[in-house]
Amino acid sequence: MKTVNDVETLERLYGVPGQSSVLKEVDHLHPAYRPFIERSPFMVLATTGPEGLDASPRGDPAGFVVIEDAHTLLLPDRRGNNRIDSLRNVLADPRVALLFFVPGVNETLRVNGRASIVIEPSMLERFTFEGKLPRSVLRITVETVFFQCSRSLIRAGLWDPARHVARTELPSNGSILEALSQGTIEGVEYDRDLPGRLKTSLY
Questions:
Q1: Distance (Å, rounded) from C-alpha 89 to C-alpha 40?
Q2: How far apart are CA 80 and CA 132, in angstroms?
Q3: How far is Cα 193 from Cα 203, in angstroms, rounded to an integer?
């Protein structure tokens, strides 16, 4: 199988990036980019560490990632499964990448930077939601920002209701866990209790 093993071959294969692809990258949260963060209710946080890579979905009402200043973002860490894979990685390697989505918009916003885990009480209180504080807040020092063009989301038809998949067409959480646990977890019971558990444990 023929593969690419050096940068020179890769660059010959793909050619030179267009001027707009280069100019759109900046080292701060330019006013033109801020609305993508302010209107985003969902983003993906990518990290790396000794145990490997992690890409973690993060969501809350739009604006949940706060623009502190032109070089700083604040991301509250809401209740989850307590694996804390992302946070373990940040402790070992502060480099992070964020990909912001805005419903109905095909462009996404990419932010790269370095993160630290803040547990200062006054910081946690800023992100109180429904009476619950986050366990921590990621303070992200921004290094590069640029928008990703719409091609991938257009090809995917991500926002097209006609392409949406009914949840029942995929294995349920319970059936997956039952299969992977070799029956230790009872799938039907897990699926039955899940809606109520989610309702009371979002924050």
A1: 24
A2: 13
A3: 18
Please tell me the pTM assigned to this model: 0.94
For 16-156, CATH number?
2.30.110.10
Say if CB 86 and CB 119 are below 8 A apart.
no
Residues ≥6 apart with Cβ < 8 Å to 132: 79, 203
Q: What are the beta bridge partners of residue 145? A: 26, 111
10-residue mean pLDDT profile of the chain (203 residues): values are 96 93 96 98 97 95 97 96 95 98 98 98 96 96 97 97 97 97 95 93 89
Cβ(67)–Cβ(38) under 8 Å? yes
- Quick one: tokens of 108? 């996404």
Q: Two tokens at 147?
A: 């928008």
**Main-chain dihedrals φ then ψ at residue 29, nearest 5 degrees:** -85, 80
In Å, how far from its chain's centre is CA 57?
Answer: 4
Asked if residue 100 lies in contact with residue 169, where contact means CB atoms within 8 angstroms, the answer is no
The domain spans of the chain are 16-156, 165-200
Q: Which residue has the tokens 């619950």?
A: 132
Which residue, chain included where needed, has tokens 């080292």? 27
Other CB atoms within 10 Å distance of the CB of residue 89: 24
